[in-house]
Sequence to fold (491 residues):
Amino acid sequence: MTHDQVVSRLPWLANDSLEEQERREVETHLASCEDCRRELVATLAIGRVMATGHPSPEELVALCWGEDAESAIGGHVASCPTCASELELLRASRELERFHGGAVPTSRVGPRPRVGPWRRWSLVAAAVLLIAAGVSLVASQRKAGRLLAEQQRRATEAQQQLDQLVRRAEAAESARSDLARRVHELLAPQAGIALIELAPFASRRGGPSSPVVALDGSLSRVLLLLALPTAGPAQRYDIVALDETGKEQFRLGAVAPDPRGLLTISLEPAALSAGTLRIDVRPAGTEGQPLATYRLRVTR
Amino acid sequence: MVEENTEQHLAQSFLAGDPEVARLVSGWARLALVPFRGRLGDEVEDLAQEVLAETVATLRRGISVGSTFRGLVWRIAARSAIDRLRRHQRWRFEGFAREPAGPDGDQALERLLAIEQRHQLLAVVSAMPRACRELWAWILEGLSYLEMSARVGVSEGALRVRVLRCRRRAQALIRSELPASPPNDAMGRRS
Fold:
């Protein structure tokens, strides 16, 4: 180890933090080098000065407690990291003293200076109860919040499911209408067939007026497609058509719907008279209120 | 007046060995030492006992309690804690003081160490750059140069050079503050 290397390690030889091997090398060098020994003595002296060149603990305490306003010490402390750190600890302690309260309770003076233990315990119990009540309140609020959030989540899910069902129903309705239109477009011009799709009259909510079928000489057949309400209770249905006067125009019994829920009626044009036709559909073999009612205007 | 009577009454009860007052004062001492727990660790418990003993000694010496008895206990605790912190410094003053340092080395060191005029030491340390004081504070705490270089963020060699420069700076300051010294003194000066 060179002279410079030894000198640069002397502070750590003095604070005993050198590795064992390194320390031995430095000490071996020192044993034979008078210059380095002088450097060591100087280093020790500097360390001593740096360790002791600070206000005493008493002075720092006095400064912190506001009892010593000596400017030299204050100036030193303001720029000294060691003293600043010590003063910070002292100030924290001082704050605790202030926080601890003012004077000692005067109840300690007089013939009965001692505070009964029941009072302390009652204060502790009150504090515990207060804390427990606070914790309970916070917990119940959190629980209510969780329940509300859960209900909102479920409502949102239900709304999403409903929207999905509505979209599916609309899509199915649209597909059925498209199919009927295409069948009409394909068949009607060639075979002279009038294809009329009817929805239950009661389900029309301010929709268009009753469909119109114009009977002329070119028509050979009138094909009525009656869309049943969903989930009909019977597999077969009786169909009765009445004119405006209530006179029966035609009657069909035990008509089976197709898989898409459509009742198909094929009529001769002569079976229909001009005017508004009311068509009632009931479950086969039943009387009374019809399951669905349809309206059709016939013109000639 | 009531407060003074209260303080006197408490101090007398403490000296008389009233267990409840002793518990109260012990609680003050422990509370006063709370900020020092981080650096003193378990020593705080021993220190609290020392604070109580010193409080008893102070009261028996007849020192006035002053405005508050609690304030006295608090100041004793705070001063004792700082004192204990400073004793943590790892600096081998004694171990090397007897090293042969030339014909006048020991005498020079003794002379330097004997000069404990606080204002001179304070002036020297206060004149040191803050960075140097911080480096030396870490050395006195016992940090290795590896630890210090990691803290500062420089290489070990660069750190040792910085400390050496700080040492030279301090030597120059001490020369300017201390009275004329004999040849070959502890500051490494040669005649």
Remarks:
- Chain B touches chain A through 82 residues (CB under 8 Å).
- The two ends of chain B are 67 Å apart (CA to CA).
- The CA atoms of residues 55 and 73 of chain B lie 6 Å apart.
- Confidence is low (pLDDT under 50) at residues 97-106, 180-191 of chain B.
